[in-house]
Amino acid sequence: MSSGYHALPIYCGLAIVVYPVLVAMLADEWEKQGLVYRESTQVEVDVNVRGILIKEQRRHLENLYFISPEIMQTKLTSLARLKLLLCGAMFAVSLYELAQQAEAQFALPAVNLMDINQLDICGLMLGLGGVLFLGHCARKSLSLYGTCRHKNYLVQSHNEPGVQLYSAAISTKAANLQVTHTRMFDALLAWY
Predict the structure, then answer these.
(1) What per-residue confidence (pLDDT) applies to 1?
(2) What does the chain look like in DSSP terms, one character per residue?
(3) Are the CB atoms for 168 and 154 separated by under 8 Å?
(4) Nearest Cα to Cα of residue 170 among 157, 189, 151
(5) Residues with Cβ < 8 Å from 125, sequence gap 6 or more?
(6) Sign for the pseudo-dihedral over CA of 79, 82, 84, 90
């Protein structure tokens, strides 16, 4: 019997920690090339250093503003492709793990279905839940990639002194059927 399902915790680590760091690194590189301007906010955080509480000022990345709509489409598509690769890979791993677990439970030659205990069934149900969640994430990432690739988003123009900047937003319908706009940057960093 397997020790458990690994794709879901790995996905959470990658989607919550590694992917945002990669996005920030790419944004920094693009800013050095003069392709993008980063909007950030200053926040104050408490840091414990050897038992002493210190207040630090940090900057959080809020949004990206591009110098042209064409560059924006190219860069957003590359970020969406990276997210799709991450979600698709973890979905495939979760399917493989579920298949292995199911095979270990049901593919034994003389298995008596009465011998399968409830804990094994619960383990399979948890695995199925992980597969469904990661499938949902992969589907949303595929939809986001299609939105970026086919430019199905709103281009917002921002006038700054001496430069014209562009950002993107996507339309979504809320539960009350009101149309709201979500920044593309927020949609790319959403882990669910």
Answers:
(1) 42
(2) ------HHHHHHHIIIIIHHHHHHHHHHHHHHTTSEEEEEEEEEEEEEETTEEEEEEEEEEEEEEESSHHHHHHHHHHHHHHHHHHHHHHHHHHHHHHHHHHHHHH-STT--GGGS-HHHHHHHHHHHHHHHHHHHHHHHHHHHHHHHHTT-SEEEEEEETTEEEEEEEEEEE-TTS-EEEEEHHHHHH---
(3) yes
(4) 151
(5) none
(6) negative
pLDDT averaged over consecutive 10-residue blocks of the chain (192 residues)? Answer: 70 91 94 92 86 86 92 96 95 91 72 65 86 94 95 90 91 77 90 79
Give the separation between CA 81 and CA 146, rounded to whole angstroms. 9
Contact 169, 188 (CB under 8 A): no
How many whole angstroms separate alpha carbon 121 and alpha carbon 149? 41
